[in-house]
Amino acid sequence: MISYNPKDWLRFIFQFHKTDTVLQLLPLILGMGVFSWAIVYIEINYLQLSSTSYAKNITVMHSLLGFAISMLLVFRTNTAYDRWWEGRKLWGALVNNSRNLALKMNSLLAHDDEKNRSFFKKIIPLFAVELKNHLQNEKTRLALDAQPHPEITGFDTSKHIPNQVVAVLLNKIHLLKRDRVITEFELLYINNELQSFMDICGACERIKNTPIPYSYSAFIKKFIFLYIITLPLGFALTLGYFTIPATLFISYVLASLELIAEEIEDPFGNDDNDLPMERIATNISKNVHDILA
């Protein structure tokens, strides 16, 4: 995740980062520039259409459809951001629950019980690390796919590492209860934190392997493509060669909104704008070690 000063306007305007949509859309923008020039040149020099031609009324269609496409893109970006923010809240809950479990185990275990303290210092942060690896695994994204994926070596959904980490943690807790290190009441005392680990894992998996419905995403892309590809047809008769910068700007804005939504709808990847799960996991490890020291 990129850290920045939201008040630094000059940096936003004049500095180009590798994640900037201008760089990613440069081939599309250049292609639209050439296409717009060709349309304007043909209409003015070969077809010799005048400003009174019915072709200039094509812009009326764009005016009517502009509101529809703006509403679709607003909903698209809001939905993508909701997924990103929900992912951040889930990892924030994981931080809190890991600390709470460590604090409770610190109060339940004797200070000279180095063996059990070392176990929990290792196993509690391990869940965050393994959850990060699990969410960044391509197999997790494809977990709900009905078709096989032979291109992925050893595709096996039967092994779920976060499950195994929590199973080890639960087994250890029950051993402590069996050995009367903790009581049944104390077991209930820490049960919410233990259960929350898999609740968080399941919620993250829901975001990871359930993308925006295909028909919706495909329709928006087709809509944007048809909208910008027909812009020069009407603008050429009213704007002339000024159609080229106008078309480029509109293409950049519409395509950028879709590109931004695509990037943030999966907050558990390795893109610059995705969640800093590795840093969060490191902070969890540091906090747990400090508590159980």
Verbal overview:
The chain is an all-alpha fold and 293 residues long. It contains 13 helices and no strands. It has helices at 9-14, 21-24, 26-46, 58-108, 114-135, 138-141, 161-178, 184-189, 191-209, 214-229, 231-239, 243-264, 277-291. Helix 3 packs across helix 11 and helix 4 (58-108) packs antiparallel against helix 5 (114-135). It is elongated and about 95 Å long. The two termini are 30 Å apart. Mean pLDDT is 83; it is low at 148-157.
Supply the number of helical segments: 13
Mean pLDDT, as a whole number? 83
Query: What series of H and E elements makes up the topology?
Result: HHHHHHHHHHHHH
Oligomer: single chain
Overall geometry comes to elongated
Keywords, please?
single chain; 293 residues; mainly alpha; 13 helices; elongated
